[in-house]
Each structure stands twice: as structure tokens, then as C-alpha cells.
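Notebook entry, structure prediction.
Reason for the run: the old model in the group folder had no record of what sequence produced it. Starting over properly, with the input documented here first.
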Amino acid sequence: MSKVRSMVMLAAVVAVGAAAAGCGNSSDAATAKAALRAAASGRPPSTVSQHTSPPAQRFPSYTATALQPQVDVHSAPNGPVSATLTNPLPDGSQLTFLLTADNSQSAGGWVQAYLPIKPNGSTGWIQASAVKIQGDPYRLVVTQSTHRLDVYNLANLERTYPVAVGAPETPTPVGTFYITELLKTTNPGVYGDYAYGLSGHSPTLTDFDGYDAEIGLHGTGDPSSIGHSVSHGCVRLNNADVDALVPVLPLGTPVQIQA
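New structure, fully documented this time:
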């Protein structure tokens, strides 16, 4: 599954297996999209703090949830608009950003955030008044060489799970990403019960069935694939492991993917 919406669709839709730009084998993207929008039920937990401007650093990361139907992204504080993103997302999830560590302009009413767009790693400046800022104690680290996902709570390694990652021809991208969506699937036998959409995109696939080739994190109907490099760019976990993360991780949680 490799595209958050289609992929996630794929996930949520998991259903049809359609998805996925890269993680599944089916290709009915239209059905997947319909299933995805119909399936939006489970939502991630809320984050810890609620502020309209970044508080003193107390968490390893901060997220920003849109408060209005559209959010303008600027190339610099008070600079020109470089993108306008719509809230909520098509599946109903709130538009959410991960703030960068560089928020020196926050006192002036601006925050810098990672963006869920191409190219991977894109950032932009958003007016603090347009978002609700919250502290997130969690972060995920995916190490592809060892097929492992580590879950950190503050500085503590809380859980470790085995994973499958992208095949050599459709690799999982390396970099800092974040969770954009949580979708409940309609076909648990293919992708498990839930799928997370991530802000990253496949480095080799440009689209899948008309959707951007976004990557995701989801369960699998093929547990034997765990521990191998076989996906279209998504990170696969055992279904029970994804289920265990659902009550824990909020939207915006950072996902560091390394070789």
C-alpha cells in the first residue's frame, strides 16, 4: 500500500486490498476509496497538552491540528503562501502536522511543520492561530536492516516489534515522517484491523490507481512476510502489534525510518 489515501485507503479499505499502492495485491482503488470513507470509525487517542502556541519544551515532539477548513502554508514567517491544505482529510481525519525542532519564530505567531506532501521532508510555516498544538510523548523508529520497529515513550524504549519493509525495487523511504491518518479496515484478513497513513511517499512509485504513492504502516494477511523486505514501501506489522498501538499513538506521532 503505498499512498496514504489510496494506500490507507487500501488499508482502511484494506479492504479490498485494493490498495495499496504498495502493500496489497488487489487493485480496485475505487472500491477501496469508498470503503475507506465508509469505514472511518476508530480514531487515535488525543495528545497530552493543548495550546495555541508552543509551550516550553516538555515533550520530544509537538503536533499541530488544524482548526479551520483550510490551512495556508508559507515559505517563511510572513512569507508567500506555498501550499493550501484542506481540513479534514477525505476519510474524516483532522489535518495534522508534526512540528519541526526549529520553532524559533513561534513567539511571533508562527510554527514550522513537516508537511504530508512531496518531496519527502518538505516543511513550511503555519500561523500558530490556525492550529492546536499538543505535546506527544511517543515516537517510532523503523530500522530496515534489522526489520524492527521501536516505540519510545519520552526517552524510554517501551516496545519493539518485528516488521516487513519495502522490496529492493520499491523501497521504504528513509527520513522523518509522521502519522497522518488512522483507518479501520473493512477486510481484516488482508491488512489486519487498522492501518496508519504516513506523511511519506514512495521514492520509486509516482502513483497507484490515480492516487499519490503514499506509504503506510499496517497489519498483514501474510505473517510469514514479517522480517523481510517485500512490500511496495509500506511498513507491515503483525496484526496484534498494530492493534496494540491503536489506543496509544495520536495523529502526528513522528516516525523515523532509517536504513
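Summary: The longest helix spans residues 29-39.
The old model has been moved to the deprecated folder.
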